[in-house]
Structure formats: structure tokens, C-alpha cells
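QA checklist item 7 of 12: single-chain prediction sanity check.
[x] sequence parsed
[x] length recorded as 475
[x] structure emitted
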Amino acid sequence: MTVRASEASAESPLDPAARPPEPEAAKKGRREPRRAHWLDRAGWYEPREAGARSTTRQAEALNLALSSPPTTHRGLILGTDRLSGQLVCHDPFIAYADKLVSAPNVAVVGDVGKGKSSLLKTWGTLRQLLLAGRRVVVLDKKTQAGQGEYTPLARAVGAPSIRFTVDGTGSRLNVLDPVIALGEPGRPTGAAGRPTGQMMLLRAVLAEALGRGVTEREGKALRIALLAATADARERGRIPVIGDVVHHLVHPAEDAADGIGVPRTELREWGFDPAFALERMIEEDLAGLVDEETSPDVQLDHPSGLVHFDISSLPVEGPALRIVMTVINTWQTNMLARRSEQLMQTVNVVEEGWHVAQGALGRVFQRNTKLARGLGLATLAGFHHVSDLPAGSAARALLQEAETVFVFGQSLRSDALACAELYDLPPGTEETIMGLGRGTFLAKIGSEAPLLVQHVRSPTEVRLTETDAALTGRP
């Protein structure tokens, strides 16, 4: 039986440690004993494992500087690290639980055609549905074959598309839906820690209609009209709508004027401009969209976990798109606040975040997004160029506050520099951003160094997310 060095007795002459130390004089002029090869083969000196055949290319993985995992294994697959070829995984909720980020919101930036939509549709939507207790709500603005781009995904998972149109044939979402509550007794509407209420949302819609901010007197008249419309509708056993607010702006009650110490005619004058602006909105820009009771199909629950709001038919010009996006966002956050005890995580995908870039509507959107932690809500917003967003705008704030950022290719140096400066990327990163090909992006997660990632899609995901049919002529 072979005896290894670790098992040899202390008296063994082969164990140098067992020999008594020799005088220095005795060591002089004498060569060190040579290591016996046959004892090496027998394993006397140290344990030896059998070698493994390999190639130089395969052995590159032994270089730990290259093969260290780029991210934690916890999360959903984003793609592969272009440096090491290893999988890159991330999930905003899991990263928050692991203290990698302090907020779950995600920003995706890049030129058209670089792969932003594919990432949002796969990692941001389909793969999210694989996790238990996960819901995905999509605001789908981009059009494909006369419908929203996410329609094929919704069909694939068996989810209906909630479609908003300007011809009155689509779904409706009431600005005064009871879900968007007035606020708790003794607590002002829009108080910190709660989603935007009806009054703040009405102010934002009215500011869009007027093209300016709401004055103090107009705001007072609007609040009185809202309270009166709500009470009147409750007595009649129905849900209030904007038309009711318009009526009470033009025809305020005598006791309402007495309550603030002004003549009824004066209170009526305060409400004239808001009334006419709201009336024009619901008869023209917002006709059939937010001026009636909420449609039964507008729900936040579906067995598939996907809620698809198709707003692709709404015109980009004018206020309709911005208002509908903000009303949907406000309705959703209030609904989540009411269900906070359910502990269900919701991913909100906004393909075209620049539509809520500025103004009162943008501030409402930004306010609701700030409640992500309390609502279990992660907003994934896509943008084309940082330089397109005004400083101080709501969309710029969304970009700045996101702690998970995916930067796709930017052809202009000014756009690449804006990304590098906004996210404090290493010097010279703008050159990398300008050279990124389709499907390749820089992933900046929390305070970690950016990763160069190649997005990977399965054949099914490729089929469901490809949007080049109109250009290639292939279905």
C-alpha cells in the first residue's frame, strides 16, 4: 500500500521534518538530496490528481480574471457577457432584495433599430411572466400592422388587448373612476406616500387643456365642482364623469359660494375657462376615451399575468396620448395601492417614455413612479436619446433615478456622451456606445461596473418580437 507524505510516520527517513537539524558546518560542501522520481510516481511526496486533456481555447476559462461571474445567478437571463461568454442575469425585484439597487425602476436607452424593443418584450415581458406572483402591464404605443406591437405577445399568452381608439369603438377609462379616490378623510389629495388622486389628475388634464397652469381661483372652483359632482352622482346611484364636473363649474350651488364668502356669479366666473376647456377636450381630443364610465374590460388581473393596453391608434400630435397614458398610470397605481396586501409584484413597461417628458402630466407620472417600493411596482421605460429630454423634465428624472440602465447603440457622439455623463460611465465609454451593434448593450446595475452584454432570444421569442416585416417584406 502506498503511504503518502501526509500519512508517513515521524520517524520516516524520507520525511525531512522528522530529521534532527544538522550543524551549519555539516551542511557546507554537501549537495541537497535529489528527489526520487519513483517516489514521486508512488505519491510519497504529495497527492497528485490525474490530469485532464484540454485545448488552449478551453483552458482560457481557467483565467479567473475572465471567468468570474459577471452577475449573480439570481434573476432572469439578459444575455451573455461579450468578454467571457457567461450568462448575465438580472431582475429588478431580486436585485432590490439582494441590496444591489435601492429602486427597481429600469431605463433602456438607444437608437431606433438597436434592439430596445426586443429586450423589453423578452426580458421585460415574456420572461417576467415565468416567475410566480408576477404581473406585467404594458403601455403599447408603437404600431405594427394596424395594431400595437405587443399584440402577438398578448395572443401568445392568451391575454386580451385593451384597445383605446379615437373613434369611440375602443375601451374607456374614467378620469373620475372611484379607484382614483379623492383621498382619505382629513388627508389632502396626493399626500406623500399615496398615488395621485382625482383632483391632482384633473388639474393635470386641465393644464393640458388650457395650455397653461391652473390659477388658484380656477383650482378652487374645480375642487368645489368635483366634490359636488361626486356627491350628486352618489345620490343618483352612478359613477361621476368629467361632464358632471363641467356642469357644476358652470352652475355652482349657492351654498358652495356662500361657503367661501363670494357671490355665486363670481364663483361661476372662476370656473368658466376650466369648464369650456374640459368640455372641448371631452368633445374633441378625448371623445370616447376618458369621458364615460370605465369599460368592463379594463382590468388589472388576467390568468396569464399580462395586461396589454394598446394605445397605438392614438395620435402622437395633441394631448390625447399623454392624457390617456397618465390616466392609465394613475388608475393602475391607485389600484395597486388598494391591493398592497396581496404582495404581487408588477412590472410596468412603457415603450415610448418620452411621451410623458414634461408638463403637469409628466409630474403626475413621475410622482406615481416614485411609489415603486410601496406598491411593488417596477417601471421599465424606453427612450431614444437623453439629449431629447429637457433638464428637469419628468422623463429626465426617470432616467436619472433608474439604478438599472441598459444603453444600446447611439450613432451621434453627443447622445453617447450624454449617456456616459448621466450615468457616470468610465472615460472613453462613448466610443463603445457608438460602436454597439444591434442586440448589444451596456448594462449598468447599481454601483457595479458596466457590462457589455449580447442579448439572446429563443426562436419563439424571435418570432414574437420581430418587427421588420414591413421593411423586409416577409411576414
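[x] summary fact logged: The longest helix spans residues 216-235.
[ ] second reviewer sign-off
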